[in-house]
């Protein structure tokens, strides 16, 4: 959520900043609501002052033994009027809040201009795509003989699900374990086990609701739950309504969870294979930091995700997302894209984002600044470290052999009980 003070003081400036994303802010509608709010607030303050003055008058009249009928009647009328005006204020504030919750974050000045992924800027590459002396297969053709079963998953759950078995299931599990070990041992993250079901308020806090309701899986009940779309949601919510001591920062958390997404906006995209699933596993990284440290933390976190791909010896590139391709809650995002031989292009395997205070304001996640002694909003960052299924896909395609077997990356051999080949 954007700073309400900024919206009140520089609405045209906010509109211009959001226009970089292609987002059109209805300045007139917001300004009209704000004028109504101010007018109602002034009236509420006036009535509250009159009510307080009348209460003092009642007390004075009582001490003098005077008739209380008139001041008591006036007090009741003022209380009723104040109750009515406060209800109006509550309703208008709810409309303003709804508008605020629909606004994306303001982008960092370093984010490239552009309206779609074609304007993303490559920052660096690692490794060279392998030259094959045979026609490489895609991960579906490679995986099905090894235990990748879309038909069985379809019978029980429909499209965009998969069943893995045998050594393929073991490699999938091993990848998650390897990533957790790397982030905890080498990168200083604290591992967490978190709920996979959360209340709506948790998703509002991290920005998935109300704007992206259609992308979530809701679970009926009282109270209702949502399946998490990413471990970013429960990990970031750990600092909800907290005032953190400065010595606790930075907080670095990681978790391996399943993720559940309806992919409502991805109809017809990546319908073959494991690239885009309703259920997939991911190792997530979250950092909670002082505001002045957040962009250094973004570079660090991106490097942590890169270390996974370097250890697996997978060719990849890092791109800085342009204005129109940056996620709603992010001020700046780097994507890591891994090379897929079957598609002859790089595909996203991780996104690392600095949300600045956008999520923290919704969550009321703060730290006590020792220089001022006052609570201030923290900055939150999140990144995939990395998507387990896509890492599996990348290994199958990049390490395939002509006979359909797949070499297991050296870093994964200890996690696979010494096995170095899938066949």
Can you give a write-up of this model?
This protein is an alpha+beta fold. It folds into 2 domains: 26-101, Serine-tRNA synthetase, tRNA binding domain (Helix Hairpins); 117-422, BirA Bifunctional Protein, domain 2 (2-Layer Sandwich). It contains 12 helices and 18 strands. An 8-stranded mixed β-sheet has the order 1-11-12-13-16-10-9-4. A 3-stranded antiparallel β-sheet has the order 5-7-6. β6 and β7 (225-227) form a beta hairpin. α3 packs antiparallel against α4 and α7 (166-185) packs across α12. The longest helix is centred in the N-terminal third of the chain and has 37 residues, at 27-63. The protein is elongated. The model has no long low-confidence stretch (mean pLDDT 95).
Total beta strands: 18
- Shape call: elongated
* Spatial strand sequence of the major β-sheet: 1-11-12-13-16-10-9-4
Estimate the mean pLDDT confidence. 95
Describe the sheet with the most strands: 8 strands, mixed
Structural class: alpha+beta
* CATH-level-4 superfamily name of the largest domain: Bira Bifunctional Protein, Domain 2
Indicate how many domains the architecture comprises: 2
Number of helices: 12
Any guess at the CATH architecture of the largest domain?
2-Layer Sandwich
Topology pattern, helix = H, strand = E? HHHHEHEHEHEEHEEHEEEHEEEHEEEHEE
Strand content: 15-25%
CATH topology heading of the largest domain: BirA Bifunctional Protein, domain 2
Low-confidence stretches: none
**Residue share in helices?**
25-40%
Radius of gyration: 27 Å
Distance between the termini: 50 Å
Could you name the CATH class of the largest domain? Alpha Beta
